[in-house]
Design goal:
202 residues; alpha+beta; Nonspecific Lipid-transfer Protein, Chain A; five-stranded mixed beta sheet; rod-shaped
Length: 202
Amino acid sequence: MTYEELVSQVNKSAAKMDADKITDHLAIQVNIEGEAEGAFYIEMLRGNIVVAPYEYYDRDVLLICQASQILAILKGELDPMQALNDGQIRAEGNIGRLGLLGEIIKKTPARKRAAAAKKTTAAKKPAAKKAPAKKTAAKATAKKETAAAKTTAEKPAAKVTAKKETAAAKTTEKAATAEKSAAKTAEKKETAATKSKTAKKK
């Protein structure tokens, strides 16, 4: 990790911190030893947080630590006062002001948002399992709609078929009636012819 990368990460972490309770001015200079060696400061005033890659001569406290330690402090993974008491980090100036930084980090909304995000993710997992059921319901609805559409389409076709059958039956009946009439007419003609022949013989 380079010094520039460290300052960038510190800036991102500081941007998530809630410094609204800082009614006065707090300036902490951080001197990094080892990897990403260099100095920068974190300044807080009325809720505004500034991280700049410079020394701050009118600082409240000077914090001397490693890059991994300041990142752990800003993420809430390392308490600055506890680390100071354990000898993990060193500090000069108004040490009590360093404790204020720890209080701000503990109360940062970013941690609450992270917890809320985990709950939301956990709540969404069961919903993902229910998705196939919704798909099945959608398929069932689609099948019903298709069946209804077929039934609706079949009704007019059935009516047309019924009309055709009725017309055919009527045509058949007419043909049968015509045949009967023709047969009667033929019988009448034969009867008349027979009578005529009988009359001639007499």
